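Customer escalation, tier 2.

The customer says the design service returned an amino acid string that "doesn't look like it belongs to this structure." They asked us to rerun it and document both sides in this ticket. The original structure tokens are below, unchanged.
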């Protein structure tokens, strides 16, 4: 549907003339949006923090490092553009503490602007998410959002608006969100997560085995009771026959 809307390509064009009606499209979008958000939001806030942190990877640190060079005057770079998939954008938004954001459409982007305020010389950061440039022309769209403090997670529609001081931005991205700072850290924690998951699965299997063994013991007792009843029934039957 996104391809059709953005590139004017027919939807499910086929020789039988089968097409999706408006109701079909609405259901497909609903299921797709739910799946996209579930991937990085999980079933609860703790899952969102864990899933999105690993999914965002080193991108948060890369963003901060690139801006810090300019803030310190050690870099003359004025613009950095990262080409990414919609999954990259969703992981970043979830990691930064936002929930139920609009799903990125073609050309959707997250931007970070570093400014020096003229009134007091303070460095400030403006973050913006434009999920659909076709709807929100970039030349005029300027809705800046602030990353929630600590590890707070907020609904996108309730996200605080405005700009952040440079030090506040760094604190919230790197310390508050516990963003990875190196490939080694990312890999190491991923391995720890994998080991923890494996240990949890082992414990779950042990519990299942224990339950199965208990059920087998109960079935064995029933079999023994069955054997006794059958023997008693046979003895009674023979006595009556005599």
């Amino acid at each position: 549907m996104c391809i059709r809307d953005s590139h004017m390509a027919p939807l499910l064009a086929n020789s039988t003339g089968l097409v999706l009606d408006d109701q079909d499209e609405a259901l497909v979008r609903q299921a797709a949006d739910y799946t996209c958000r579930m991937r990085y939001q999980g079933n609860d806030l703790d899952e969102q923090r864990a899933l999105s942190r690993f999914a965002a990877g080193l991108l948060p640190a890369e963003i901060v490092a690139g801006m810090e060079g300019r803030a310190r005057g050690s870099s003359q770079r004025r613009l950095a553009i990262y080409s990414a998939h919609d999954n990259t954008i969703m992981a970043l938004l979830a990691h930064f503490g936002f929930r139920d954001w609009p799903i990125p459409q073609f050309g959707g982007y997250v931007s970070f602007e570093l400014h020096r305020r003229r009134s007091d010389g303070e460095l400030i950061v403006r973050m913006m998410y434009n999920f659909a440039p076709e709807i929100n022309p970039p030349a005029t769209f300027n809705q800046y959002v602030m990353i929630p403090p600590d590890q707070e997670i907020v609904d996108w529609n309730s996200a605080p608006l405005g700009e952040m001081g440079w030090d506040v931005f760094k604190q919230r991205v790197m310390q508050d969100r516990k963003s990875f700072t190196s490939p080694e850290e990312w890999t190491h924690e991923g391995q720890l997560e994998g080991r923890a998951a494996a240990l949890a699965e082992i414990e779950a299997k042990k519990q299942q085995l224990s339950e199965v063994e208990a059920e087998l013991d109960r079935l064995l007792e029933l079999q023994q009771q069955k054997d006794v009843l059958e023997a008693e029934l046979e003895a009674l039957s023979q006595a009556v026959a005599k």
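Tier 2 assessment: The sequence is consistent with the input. Residues 183-241 form the longest helix (59 residues). The mean pLDDT is 88. Sent an explanation to the customer and offered a walkthrough call.
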